[in-house]
Amino acid sequence: MSKAAKLDRELYEAELHRLQAELVEMQEWIKQEGKRLVVVFEGRDAAGKGGAIKRITEYLNPRIAQVVALPAPTERQQSEWYFQRYIQHLPSAGQIKLFDRSWYNRAGVERVMGYCTAEQHRRFLRQCPIFERMLMEDGIMLRKYWFSVSDKQQEKRFKSRLTDPMRRWKLSPTDLESLTRWEDYSRAKDEMFVHTDIPEARWNVVESEDKKRARINMIAHLLSSIPYEKVDRPTLKLPKRPPSTGYQRTDRRLQFEVPDHTAALIRQDAAATYVDPEDEDN
């Protein structure tokens, strides 16, 4: 398969903004109609799941659209039914829940890294389709996305994170070990698809060698899969301010204000760009 051309930045930003406006419309429909939407994001480490979630939620109401990114289970949670801790994060009427990794941890990292037993893994593969059918039977809209990236691209992104102090936190020893267990993760993913790629809730594969293309393709597909309609919202108008009743603001000297850090920045910038007139003459 030939390599797809990289998406032009201006085209990407224009289409992303259009899609984000549609996401706001979808959100309003879900809120008004009392719908419930769950979107599952899975895939290789550094495949671009987090970036896609960030663009989806950028303009959405955080009270309606919420990201679920659970830490490792506690000892108590490990003794519970596996799906139990995920159930409490399912949406109520008028909500969207975006799972940044989900119950599929058991079919991926837990399976490969030995964090679950073979029997627990087999039980998950049996129960997961039943669990998801129960969600949909109750009216929850479920969408599942698998972000696919090549081993070379994953390694390139890992190296970039290692040298970037702003993204270094995204790497863990488990993430790095995924480089040496590439084929193990591939086999686990293939087995997971065999059992959980059900007609009612298909896995939608997102090719993410180019993160920009991946985000656009994923968001466009999500929007196309939800039967939302434009919601008529009431026209809002700013009221006129009433006349003053004599309120006097508290003296600023009685309040503790944060230092004006920007003033120092402006002075530093002015000093750095200042050119002595005598130097210009020389």
Describe the protein.
Helix 1 (9-33) packs parallel to helix 10 and helix 2 (49-57) packs across helix 10. This protein has helices spanning 9-33, 49-57, 75-78, 84-87, 109-113, 118-137, 151-162, 173-177, 182-196, 211-225, 261-273, 277-281; strands at 36-43, 65-68, 95-100, 140-148, 203-207. The chain contains twelve helices and five strands. The chain starts with 8 loop residues before the first helix and ends with a helix. It is α/β, with parallel strands linked by helices and 282 residues long. It has a five-stranded parallel sheet with strand order 2-3-1-4-5, sandwiched between helices. The protein is globular. 47% of the residues lie in helices and 11% in strands.
Keyphrases for this structure?
282 residues; 12 helices; globular; five-stranded parallel β-sheet; alpha/beta
List the helices and strands and how they pair.
Elements (H helix, E strand, L loop, with lengths): L8 H25 L2 E8 L5 H9 L7 E4 L6 H4 L5 H4 L7 E6 L8 H5 L4 H20 L2 E9 L2 H12 L10 H5 L4 H15 L6 E5 L3 H15 L35 H13 L3 H5 L1
Parallel strand pairs: 1-3, 1-4, 2-3, 4-5
